[in-house]
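anyone seen this seq b4? input:
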Amino acid sequence: MISVKDLVYAYGKEPIYDRASFYVDKNQKVGLVGANGSGKSTLFKLITGEEKPDDGKVDCGGTKILVPQEVKYDPEMEKATTIRQYLDPKNQKEDYELLRIMSKLELAQFGLESPPTNLSGGQKTKLFWTRPEKSG
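predicted toks r here
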């Protein structure tokens, strides 16, 4: 059984959950699906107690299993200070070209100057397979 009541959780000023409530009954199986960066992994961490909510109550019983997303460890991503540096390490592309790539990946809201390490696991995976040496 999982019972979540009035869950509040935020990264800085950005709320991930704002008074979210739900209940999963004993013997129910539930899958969690959503866009990259929407808070799926964060919710699982809150349910398992790995993270603590800012407010609200999370009660759990029974077995919880996480099927992780495929996230590659990429030392180049870890070294890059910006998405621009990661996508175009030789500085050969114009801003509009890189922003077009970002838009197609649904990552444009992060811009080119954000650190790639700030992205969610799924977002990092998208970025990883975008680099020419990875996809070619």
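Residues 75-135 form one domain. The radius of gyration is 18 Å. kinda curious what u guys think
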